Amino acid sequence: MKKQLLSLALLLGLIASASEASFAAPAVFGQEQRQDDHRDKDGRQGRKGPRQDGQRRQQRLDAMAKELDLSSKQKSKVEKIFQEQQQQMQALRGQSGQDRSQRHAQAQSIRQSTDKKLKDVLSKKQYAQFEAKRQERMRQMQSRQGDQRRGGSGRRDVNGRS
After folding, report:
1. Where is the signal peptide (predicted)?
2. What span, in angstroms and rounded, lies between the C-alpha atoms of 162 and 151?
3. What is the domain range of residue 87?
4. In this structure, which long-range contacts are made by residues 80-85, counting pairs with CB atoms below 8 Å and at least 24 apart in sequence?
């Protein structure tokens, strides 16, 4: 009888530990995947974590400096302008009690102010290049959003349906 109780207790212990491991494994695996890969379930590149925002911002600034052939003085001014814009936008997001249209109007005002400051820092040619690049990014973003609304990658099956 004692042997049966002991073996039953051992069996229950094994089952309990196995079930804990099976519940814990997907969560740990999922966290590792998100931290290392930053891809969603469809394999598309996802958003980076907050600790990489500074690195990403610096990479974008470096790429912009290279594309527009910015001087070091221009680059530092542009960096300040973008930092100010980011701080203003974060403050706007933190405000409560405003409706969506008010926040949208304020965000638009912040963007217009940023554009005016950029026009003062960049030459006409540089600003035109900057604006063209911005429009290109907007088109790409809109096409990605359109693909998502259609339910996927926009590919069609043999019958011509999405």
Report:
1. 1-24
2. 8
3. 71-143
4. 81/114, 81/117, 81/118, 81/121, 82/57, 82/114, 84/114, 85/110, 85/111, 85/113, 85/114
Q: Which amino acid is at 89?
A: M
Answer left, alpha or beta for residue 154, where phi above 0 means left and psi between -120 and 50 means alpha.
Answer: left
Span 16-57, pLDDT tens digits: 665 554 444 444 444 444 444 455 555 555 555 555 667 888
Q: Is residue 47 part of a domain?
A: no
In a domain, 120, yes or no: yes
Instruction: State the DSSP string of 105-116.
Output: HHHHHHHHHHHH
- Domain membership of residue 40 (yes or no) is no
CB neighbour class for 89 (10 Å; exposed up to 12, middle 13-18, buried from 19): middle
Q: What is the mean pLDDT of residues 105-128?
A: 95
Q: How far apart are CA 102 and CA 107, in angstroms?
A: 9
Residue 132 domain-assigned (yes or no): yes
